[in-house]
Amino acid sequence: MKFFSLFKKELRDMLNAQTILTMVGIVAMLVIIGNIFSDSISESAKKSGDIVICDMDGTDFTKSVIKALKEDCEANDGSLEEVEIKSEDYAKELKRIDQKQVLIIPKGFTELAKEKHQTAKIRFVQRMTSLAMMSNLNTGSSTAFETFKNAVKNTIYQDKLAEDKMTPEEVKQLEDPVELEEITVVGNKQEEISSSVIMSICATQNMIVPIILFVLIMFASQMILNAISTEKIDKTLETLLSAPISRMTVLAAKTLSAAVVALLQAACFMFGSSRMMSGMTSGIGVDSDKFDQALKNLGLSLSAGQYVLVGVQMFLSILIALSIAMILGVLAKDAKSAQTLLMPITISTMIPYCLSMVSDISALPIALRAVVYAIPFSHTFMATENAMFQNTAVYIGGLIYQAVFLAVCIKIALSIFMSDKIFTMSIGGKKDKKKKKA
Amino acid sequence: MEKVLEVKGLGKQYVKGVYASRDVTFDIKKGEIFALIGPNGAGKTTTIRTIATLLKTTEGDALVSGHSILTEPEKVRECITYLPDEAGAYKNMTGRAYLEFMASIYAKDGQDVIDYVNRGVEICELGERLNDKISSYSRGMTRKLLLARAIMPKPDLAILDEPTSGLDILNALEIRRTIKKLAADGMSFLLSSHNMLEIEFVSDRVGIIAKGMLLETGTPEELVAKYEARNLEEVFEKVVKIREVL
Ligand SMILES: Nc1ncnc2c1ncn2[C@@H]1O[C@H](COP(=O)(O)OP(=O)(O)O)[C@@H](O)[C@H]1O
Ligand SMILES: [Mg+2]
């Protein structure tokens, strides 16, 4: 009963008008961001990037197409590079030519497109190394494909215009002269699916883990920090701890209600961010259902076991954040310093969160990577990718590091809570030093 | 008479080698009001906090209703209430909600909660204001609410650190009267104050503390007679001089 009335009080404190307003405001913001992104993504998808091309056909026709393509690229601040592909083992070939993607004009392209006036196929092969949005976005196949299509159209038009004759089939063909067949390589596996499609589907799925984690860490630690520091600042803690209730019960009630409210907020964020993501993907234009099987074949959807691995990491991160926030809450001297004390948690959550959104952490320069790996939360932000791309060593290493980190944090937090330190400790300590001298 | 508190050689060092309180020994009988008096920094709060099981002792022990603060702190907390120096209450609760919340922490069952709250409402004399948020209370009102909270569970021993400091004369007088009345009903009090003149009126016995050491204990009359002084302030001056502690 004591636990329950304490829990009720904490819950009421944490679920105040301000937190509820924040939640509503953030959901509204995410939806708006989604709409803005939807516009800017379809904008950036139009912009041409660099194109790497392999001409297997090698006819005059393909050569003039490539020439037109080159002009088109350069007009859009891009570049065109011609390479040689020797086999259909694209994983090996991409590694050999040291490229992330290649556009392939297959043998017989000219025969189909020029002689038989049929829709011809070209191939776009892309290697995926990360699910981070920005590391793949600039290499989208639709861009290369559109540019190529235009180049083919131009070349055929010019040929025909020179000969001054055009049949109805030719006109029909010109509506749709080439069709794209995309192949995505993950690890050693390849599937006939566009990497940009995978990207946008996976992004929706995989952004959810970091967002929930980010919200859980930030809000749970803010709430537990406030719950403890206000008790200290308003001098209600001594009263509470001199009552017939154990310190463990007090801690448990505060921790549990912080966790419950943080979960509530995470649910709001999930809703808001799924709306944001659907806004974003509608900008790219994806039809999701039929790609599920391809995702599974590529190993890009999590198995039940991998979900458990990610869950364990999340749980560890939240416990670490809560125990650090408890320690910091004890240190606070006033409401302002309590806010300042949140900074270390905010920063060390923001860094891996932002990095994992924007780029592939394992591809960062070594010094920066060391800093990121030292932040315990980073390992959870990378957990989904590590589980998917089977970086077992990195995953296990992160897990061990987090477990050790957590053990140390809990030990420190408990040693503070169960001892005099909860009353005698505070940051700065100038006041104490003066007292000692007196 | 039955002893509610027995303090035996209590000592506390916040920093190794520096005593904040040292070899403090005294006892409080049932229905007695005992006050620790001494200047700021004398060690009153330190002594009180160790008895309230908030701080761990460095030396000695204290028994509250027979329970040791060293070995049975949970039992001790069931027998005491503690009103800290300059304590606050949960600002966004109403006075009544605060009393209800604290009652639920001290109570053993639902009936207890009702009894405690009723007694608390009676003692604090806040009337309708109990339905207002504590953040709107004056200092005197908050203090009265906190005192009511400390007294409502009828503990064996109520520990009140500087119960009247910072209050105007009327509020202070009211609080002293409440304490006297409850002591007459059998509750014991451990008070502290740096205002030695004021404490003369309320306490049955006093302990003079300076530099962490308890120098003298006795009724105000005994001490005034023994040191041929006019009041406790003069007693304090003479005791400190004789024992050469300041
Ligand atoms: N948290 C602390 N850390 C170190 N020394 C302290 C602390 N709190 C109090 N002290 C020291 O203990 C001594 C007694 O303080 P205290 O018990 O608060 O005195 P009083 O309540 O009689 O004014 C003082 O010298 C004070 O400087
Ligand atoms: Mg004091």
For the termini of chain A, the CA-CA separation is 45 Å
Provide the number of structural domains of chain A: 2
The CATH architecture name of chain B reads 3-Layer(aba) Sandwich
**Unreliable parts of chain B:** none
Q: Give the overall pLDDT of chain A as a whole number.
A: 80
**Whole-number tally of structural domains of chain B:** 1
Task: Give the strand line-up of the largest sheet of chain A.
Answer: 2-1-3-4-5-6
Element-level helix/strand string of chain A: HHEHEHEHEHHHEEHHHHHHHHHHHHH
Helix content of chain A: over 70%
Number of helices of chain B: 9
- Give me the count of strands of chain B: 10
Q: Any idea what the shape of chain A is? A: elongated
Q: State the CATH topology of chain B.
A: Rossmann fold
Radius of gyration of chain B: 18 Å
Strand content of chain B: 25-35%
Tell me the strand percentage band of chain A.
5-15%
Tell me, rounded to a whole number, the average pLDDT of chain B. 93
Label the overall shape of chain B. Answer: globular
Oligomer class? heterodimer
Main β sheet profile of chain B: 6 strands, mixed
